[in-house]
Every structure is written in C-alpha cells, then in structure tokens.
Design a protein that fits this description.
The complex is a heterodimer of chains A (262) and B (156). Chain A is α+β, with helices and mostly antiparallel strands and 262 residues long. In chain A, strands 4-5-8-6-7 form a five-stranded antiparallel sheet. In chain A, helix 9 packs antiparallel against helix 10 and helix 10 packs antiparallel against helix 11. Chain B is of the alpha+beta class and 156 residues long. Chain B folds into two domains: 77 residues, Beta-grasp domain (Ubiquitin-like (UB roll)); 75 residues, [2Fe-2S]-binding domain (DNA polymerase, domain 1). Chain B has a five-stranded mixed sheet, with helices on both faces. In chain B, helix 3 crosses helix 6. The chains are: A alpha+beta (262), B alpha+beta (156). The interface between A and B is medium-sized, with 26 and 32 residues. The complex binds flavin-adenine dinucleotide.
Chain lengths: 262, 156
C-alpha cells in the first residue's frame, strides 16, 4: 500500500481534495492509530497549514474555535475558560497536545467527550463551503471538512460537565454528561443536557431538558429530571460497561451533576 | 515508493531523513536515525512509552506523522543523558523507579516537560503529568517519589 501525504495551504483547498481514500489529519491521534493498525482504506493523508484552523476568536457573545485547536489550546484560551475542565480530562498531557476539537466531533465511542460539552453550548459547526449547521445535526452526518465550531459565550456558572471513568486520572469514559442551566438554581431558561457514550454518538436528552425547563433547581425538579434520565436513550454494551450498568448509573450521575454546586 | 525528506532538530542536532508516506515519528527516530530511546509499546497512544518532546511539549511519537515535525525541535531520553545523568535519571535510579525499564524513557520525558514548566510540582501534579504513561512493574509510587525528589534536588 502506498500512502501519500498532501499538505495544502488553505481549508478551502483541503475541502476540495476530500474524497474516497483521502483522510484529513487533525491531530492524528485516531488517524495515525488506525494506520499503525493496518487501516488500508486510506491512500492519502490530507493536511492543511491554514493558520485560521488553530485560532480562537471572540466576537460579541460568540466564540469561534478553529477545528485544529488542540485540547491544550483550549486550556490556554481565557475565552474558553468554561471548557477547561472538559479539555483537562481528555486523554493524558500528550493526547491533549495533539488531539483537536475538530477531530473530537468525528471520534466514535468511547471518545467524543468534548463534543458532549459543545452540544449543550448550542455549538454550530462550520463545514467549509457550506452554511453553519447545529452540532446535533452534524453529528448525525459527519461529512465534509470542518473549519471551525462556534459557541455562545456561556453564562458564568451555568455550564457543568462530568466524565465518569473507572481509572483515574486518565480513564476512558463509562459515560460523560454536560449540562447548561442558565438561571439555576433559580428558574432555568434554555436548559440543555447531553450525554456521551450512552449510544453511538453524543446526544441531547430532550426529556431531561423538559423536566428542567422553566423550573428552579430544587429537590423536586432534580427528582423528575433523574426520572427522565433514560428516556429516548439506548446505551450500548462495550468493553468498558454493559448496557445494564450504564442504565443503572446514568440517573445517579445526572442527579450528582444537577446537585453539584456550580 | 516515493520518499520525502524531513528535517528537524533531534536533541539539539540538525538531522535530515527520508520518510515513507504516512510514516510515524517513532519509526523515523528509531529506524531512520538510530535513537532507540523512545519505545514502541502499543502503537495506539495508550501506553506513553514513545513519549518525546516536540518544542518542549510531550507528544506521542507513534501517533505523530513524521512530516508534521519539519523544522521543529525533538527531545528524547537519549538527549537527556548526553552529558552525564540528568537529575531525573539519577533520581529514577536512586528511587528504584525502573524495573523492566520499558516505560522509563517515556516517563522521563513526561516528567521533564512537567519540571521545565513547573519546577516545584505537587504530588497530584506529578500524577497528572505521568497519567498518559503506563508502568506495569513499579505501581507508580517510586516513579512519583523520584520526580518529586528530582524537583527538590534541582531547587537545592
Ligand atoms: C490514549 C488516548 C486517549 C484518548 N482519550 C480520549 C478521551 O478521554 N476523550 C476523548 O474524547 N477522546 C479521547 N481520545 C481520542 C482522540 O484523541 C480525541 O477524540 C481527539 O480530539 C481526536 O482529535 P484528532 O485531531 O487527534 O483526530 P484525528 O485523528 O486527526 O482525526 C479523527 C477523525 O476526524 C477527522 N477529522 C479531524 N479533523 C477534521 C476536520 N477539521 N474536518 C473534517 N474531518 C476531520 C479525521 O479525518 C478522522 O477521520 C484519546 C485518544 C488516545 C490515543
């Protein structure tokens, strides 16, 4: 198998080059792993040196995160402070220096923790040459070259995240959960809840969001949210945990996430 | 098969090497340049035995595309000990922090990145810094003690 590497100057060039056998390389933590293990579906590795890919830019209440920003890059950005606790629990230090935000959107379970966090921040995905699409929709298709993800600047204290792993400090997630609860502990408007590793891709959990919307974060609300924790969710059995186990623990972790002091 | 030239600094020395399409940095350093200090462990980034520093930051050489390090500065464990034992290497010896030794190179590079950034780390910071490196012999405690001791000796 011959493999060629092509490096193109702009994201637009990269988008034009995508096609059968062409694999875009972000940080490479998943692409290179596949190559090391004999993935023969790749004939061309595509890279772009476009500086826009690694920039974090703020305008008004929107923050644009270049797809090539690494987890370490997220942790170095003051504008992305709310997301520091998320980036910090992705892999070990070396993985965080390499793995990118763009790559995380394509990571299959047990990965994709960053995408879970982005889901509750109403992230929009900029696919090169197309209009922005909501992340939730993008995750169902996962096509095209992603140039950036934009989020709304989170309201202080409204964002919460929890990655549940059995190995500490760097374990793979049994599941991960994110919440965005503007107004809590008072009346919540615009509740967002997302899960990772509770199915084939990160998902929003509408039933829990409805249980929280318009209510204060008191014991009764938390109980009804926990009661709705598994509605519309079909977790998988994999080497990390069984479906049964995920069903047992997800409501407990949701409750803890909601009870946590922000 | 077409090969491409790649040029970078390895432990301070300018090096040039031909790489095959898709070749990883670990292969390039070990087979191409003969520095066998970074180890091939799992090939999937999980074990950390291939950890090298790129521009001072820890990276997994097995998951790094060789062509991506053009013009950059790579440091490996072989460079650490170039002028006698590095304080970290000495501390690893004194604390019996290596048994089979397979993880040691990667551990040392992860530890070096930490101490370069934070000369006086807490125990938790050390644990975090080596969290991407697996050791199957020591149970980690001697490694953590060695890194903390190296930091103390440097400060003294
Ligand atoms: C040891 C280890 C531990 C890990 N731990 C975690 C963890 O705890 N949590 C977690 O979420 N992940 C984890 N990962 C997985 C992975 O490192 C991250 O998901 C990372 O964010 C992937 O990004 P990348 O840039 O390395 O992806 P790459 O390997 O570069 O790419 C992955 C896929 O995405 C595509 N892609 C990348 N960027 C773009 C783009 N801009 N546009 C279109 N397609 C693109 C690639 O073509 C490829 O198909 C771990 C990986 C390793 C090796």
């Amino acid at each position: 198998m011959t493999l060629t590497v092509e490096t193109v100057p702009t994201v637009a060039d990269a988008a034009r080059r995508l096609g059968t056998g062409v694999r875009y390389l972000g940080g490479g933590t998943l692409v290179m792993r596949a190559l090391n293990y004999g993935d023969t579906s790749v004939s061309t590795i595509l890279r772009s040196s476009d500086p826009a890919l690694t920039r974090v830019e703020t305008s008004g209440d929107r923050i644009r995160i270049g797809a090539g920003v690494t987890m370490a890059g997220v942790m170095a950005s003051r504008d992305l402070e709310a997301l520091h606790p998320v980036a910090r629990v992705i892999g070990g230090p070396a993985v965080r220096n390499m793995g990118t935000v763009g790559g995380n959107l394509f990571a299959d379970p047990p990965y994709g923790d960053f995408a879970v966090a982005l889901l509750v921040l109403d992230a929009m995905v900029q696919v090169e040459g197309a209009s922005e699409v909501p992340l939730e929709r993008f995750l169902g298709e996962r096509r095209g070259l992603v140039s950036a993800v934009t989020i709304r600047r989170p309201e202080r204290g409204a964002f919460r995240f929890r990655k549940v792993s059995r190995v500490k400090p760097k374990g793979i997630a049994v599941l991960s959960m994110a919440a965005y609860l503007p107004g809590a502990p008072g009346r919540i408007t615009g509740a967002r809840i997302a899960y990772g590793n509770m199915g084939p891709r990160p998902i929003r959990v509408a039933a829990v969001e409805q249980a929280l919307e318009g209510r204060g974060l008191d014991a009764g609300t938390i109980a009804s949210a926990a009661g709705a924790a598994l509605q519309g969710v079909s977790p998988q059995t994999d080497p990390i945990a069984s479906e049964w186990y995920r069903r047992e623990v997800a409501p407990v972790h949701l409750r803890r996430l909601l009870e946590a002091q922000s | 098969m077409s090969k491409k030239p790649v040029q970078f600094r390895l432990n301070g020395a300018e090096r040039a090497v031909f790489v095959e399409g898709g070749q990883n940095l670990l292969d390039t350093i070990r087979r191409g340049l003969g520095d066998t200090s970074p180890k091939w462990g799992c090939g999937q980034g999980t074990c950390g035995a291939c950890t090298v520093l790129i521009d001072g930051q820890p990276h997994l050489a097995c998951l790094t595309l060789a062509e991506a390090v053009e013009g950059r500065e790579i440091s490996t464990n072989a460079g650490l000990g170039a002028n006698g034992l590095h304080p970290l290497q000495q501390a690893f010896m004194d604390h019996f922090a290596a048994q089979c030794g397979f993880c040691t190179s990667g551990m040392l590079m992860a530890a070096k990145a930490l101490l370069d950034r934070n000369p006086n780390p807490t125990r938790d910071e050390v644990i975090e810094a080596i969290s991407g490196n697996i050791c199957r012999c020591t149970g980690y405690e001697p490694i953590i003690d060695a890194i903390l001791d190296a930091a103390k000796r440097r400060a003294a």
